[in-house]
Design brief:
The complex is a heterodimer of chains A (about 450) and B (about 300). Chain A is α/β, with parallel strands linked by helices and about 450 residues long. Chain A contains 17 helices and 18 strands. With about 300 residues, chain B is an all-alpha fold. Chain B is globular, with a radius of gyration of 24 Å. Classes of the chains: A alpha/beta (about 450), B mainly alpha (about 300). Chain B: Keywords: Cell membrane, Membrane, Sugar transport, Transmembrane, Transmembrane helix, Transport.
């Protein structure tokens, strides 16, 4: 009988233990007691700046006079899923790293708390308000720190070896240069061009997108003038990529290539050029130290003329969780992270390019090799945010990638994409999920040059 | 009174497992079964749409392509891993030197994390600097690098990796089955003049029947559900060539596209409907197999 009693007690203890695991309060006993530390958590998915962020958080924990202790949690590629889960289980972080392609979803899911109550006139003046990038429905949820420019990154040594004087400015030149580089480099395993097609959305989101944008077309196929999807401007871009593949100028194995293996191959001198973000400069300084001489140049346009703006991505960085019990503390930590010194260093260390005008003016050029090619120029600008729609069937990036690899009828593919994306847009508008009104006066060329020093 | 107390104690034994089953098993299934009739993206209003999600499933070419891929993947994995596991089990059931070490080595992939295993195999199979291509080219077995993870060979590659990961586990189960066959059956057959091959055909295989039936059933279910190593190596690509059912479902619930890509939308409602159809397919195949293989269990 005694044994049974012990067993029953053990069962109750296990159940109690399990339920205790779900209770945030019980894991934070110091919070709230007099003189004790207020504990908050900050979640980020960024790895390129992780060492610097760790330093900042450590310094804050040691020096802040408010007895706030920040726990830094650096997540991997499962950041979004982990965040979803944390809100389901009441274990949500207090401060969240938000990005260009996550802030809208996090806002719609109700993960974010507005910060208007903390915004003084001075802060409003300092940090630009960007609709759908850091503010939604008239409320502000984040502040900009750094932005990311998109460029053509090229191996100067292979260009020289192939007798190419300057980086390509048109799609025809891109195809021809890739061919020339492959001709002189193939013997040593070097190819003209590469894309990280393991994720077609990421591959084309850093290549076709910017070529379309500098050519005056929305990077995700959305036409802001008409408020309709139209993928036909992508046809010459996709044709060019297919031509590069058919010519044998594309690095073998791009079908399963992720961005990091691509970078590793570029650093080894096996890739002539590719298109990507300004984060690459930091990557070749620390993550994959480049063994070659490389540089970054403006992305080519379809025909050599610049009718739009090369996307300057950003406008947000940190946000406060809607579930936080410590909003004041979270804001104080945000204030610390957004101080001028931190933001300046962020650019100077090469983690990103300042998007806050006052910081941009004061910060020195980053001491990172190759960053000069990524600094904002007269072609860079922030595009408005295209509506997000739940399209049925194959996504545009997958459909284009399939064409690049297997061929087909590109006219039929784009017509099908237009039909399906516009159906999804109509449905989303009808249900009130998105607002998409034509902007007859929209001129993509006017977006360029917003951040030129 | 005493009986009631005993009953209460008995229930207290199963209570923790019961709670875990309800919370981690039944609740998620009930959740998904509700949402399969809704248009729900993880935020905003949940809109009841009746059977629309199922109508969409019927017209979803990507899903049916993933079903075909799953059958190819599962078929390939079974055809290669089951006979190989049986042969290895029979060989390592003999009294040979170092058999325990060999058993441990062959079983080891089973305890290695699938993600780690897949990353290792990616470095072996990738076409630009993979170890396999370098080896084959060094010994002039191929003239140029083969794109093992490309359009033509990616399915074969993921099947081989799956076989490598599964064969040790099935071998161990076969070994357990083999060790339950009484030695005297072999001895008396040897006295009757049966050779090793005849013993294998007429004693080992029939007497392993019930065990083999269970092993194959487990293998079928595992193969139909498997997606983790594929996600790491090819992410279902290229162009959907290795996109299997469960990976397709996973991506509907947890879409990720990386930097530069457009904002992704979770398809909770549609994903639930696809998950249900997927479960029905796996269940039907398992039931069909179970009834189709009844003869195997009649050699008790």
């Amino acid at each position: 009988m005694k044994k049974k009693l012990w067993t029953a007690a053990l069962c109750v203890a296990i159940i109690g233990g399990i339920s205790a695991c779900g209770s945030k309060e019980s894991s934070n006993p110091e919070s709230g007691s007099s003189g004790a530390k207020t504990k908050i958590t900050y979640w980020t998915g960024d790895r390129h700046d992780s060492e610097y962020i760790k330093e900042l958080v450590d310094e804050y924990n040691q020096t802040n006079p408010d007895h706030i202790e920040v726990e830094l949690v650096i997540k991997g590629d499962d950041f979004d899923q982990a965040l979803d889960m944390s809100f389901q289980t009441s274990e949500a972080p207090d401060v969240i790293r938000v990005k260009e392609n996550t802030i809208q979803t996090f806002y719609k899911k109700g993960f974010l708390a507005p910060i208007d109550e903390f915004m003084t006139d001075e802060l409003k003046e300092k940090f630009p308000l960007m609709d759908n990038l850091n503010s939604f429905d008239g409320k502000r949820y984040s502040l900009p720190n750094y932005g990311t420019t998109m460029r053509l990154i090229y191996n100067k040594e292979l260009f020289e070896k192939a007798g190419i004087a300057s980086p390509p400015t048109t799609l025809d030149e891109l195809v021809a240069d890739a061919k020339k580089i492959t001709e002189v480099g193939k013997g040593s395993g070097a190819y003209g061009f590469a894309q990280n097609f393991k994720s077609p959305a990421s591959a084309l989101g850093r290549s076709a997108r910017v070529i379309a944008e500098v050519s005056g077309y929305g990077g995700f196929g959305y036409d802001f003038k008409t408020a309709r999807y139209d993928f036909s401007p992508f046809k010459p871009i996709i044709e060019a990529f297919k031509q590069i593949k058919d010519d044998g100028s594309m690095l073998p194995g791009v079908e399963s290539l992720d961005i990091d293996p691509l970078r590793a191959q570029f650093a080894e001198g096996k890739i002539g050029m590719y298109l990507s973000f300004s984060a690459e400069a930091g990557v070749y300084q620390s993550q994959f130290p480049a063994k070659i001489d490389w540089a970054a140049a403006p992305a080519p346009s379809i025909d050599g003329s610049f009718k739009g703006a090369s996307g300057f991505l950003g406008g947000q960085w940190l946000a406060i969780s809607s579930k936080t019990q410590e909003k004041e503390a979270a804001w104080k930590f945000m204030q610390y992270m957004y101080n001028d010194s931190t933001l300046k260093q962020y650019q100077e260390k090469g983690f990103g390019i300042a998007m806050v005008p006052s910081v941009s003016e004061a910060a020195a050029t980053p001491s990172v090799k190759g960053i000069e090619g990524f600094l904002p120029n007269k072609y860079d600008g922030v595009w408005p945010v295209a509506p997000t729609v739940a399209v049925q069937g194959t996504k545009s990036d997958d459909a284009f990638f399939k064409y690049i690899v297997s061929g087909g009828d590109l006219d039929a593919i784009t017509a099908d994409l237009n039909q399906r994306y516009n159906s999804a847009l109509d449905a989303a508008k009808a249900s009130g999920e998105v607002k998409a009104e034509p902007m007859p006066d929209f001129d993509p060329a006017k977006l360029a040059g917003q951040y030129t020093k | 009174m005493n009986k009631a107390k005993n009953l209460a104690f008995s229930y207290s034994y199963i209570l923790p497992s019961f709670i875990l089953t309800v919370v981690l098993g039944i609740y998620p299934i009930a959740w998904a079964m509700r949402y399969m009739f809704y248009d729900y993206k993880g935020y905003g209003a949940e809109k009841f749409i009746g059977l629309d999600n199922f109508t969409r499933v019927l017209k979803d070419h990507e899903f049916w392509n993933s079903v075909v891929n799953t059958f190819v993947y599962a078929g390939g994995k079974l055809v290669l891993s089951i006979p190989l596991a049986l042969i290895l089990a029979v060989l390592l059931n003999q009294r040979i030197r170092g058999r325990n070490l060999l058993r441990a080595i062959i079983f080891m992939p089973t305890i290695i994390s699938t993600a780690v295993m897949a990353v290792v195999f990616f470095t072996i199979f990738n076409s630009y600097n993979g170890i396999l291509n370098q080896f084959l080219m060094k010994y002039k077995l191929i003239g140029s690098a083969v794109d093992w993870l490309g359009v033509d060979y990616s399915m074969l590659t993921v099947i081989l990796v799956a076989v490598w990961g599964a064969v040790g586990n099935y071998m161990l189960l076969f070994l357990a089955g083999l060790q339950n066959i009484p030695e005297d059956v072999y001895e008396s057959s040897a006295l009757d003049g049966a050779n090793k091959l005849q013993q294998f055909r007429y004693i080992t295989i029939p007497m392993l029947g019930p065990v083999m039936q269970m092993i194959i059933m487990l293998a079928i279910i595992n193969a139909l559900k498997g997606y983790e190593s594929i996600m790491v190596m090819t992410d279902g690509g290229p162009v959907g060539k290795t996109n299997v059912m469960f990976l397709y479902v996973y991506k509907l619930f947890f879409p990720t596209a990386g930097s530069g890509a457009a904002t992704q939308i979770q398809e909770m409602g549609y994903g639930s409907a696809v998950a249900f159809v997927t479960a029905v397919i796996v269940g039907l195949i398992t039931i069909l197999y179970f009834y189709g293989s009844k003869r195997m269990s009649q050699y008790e």
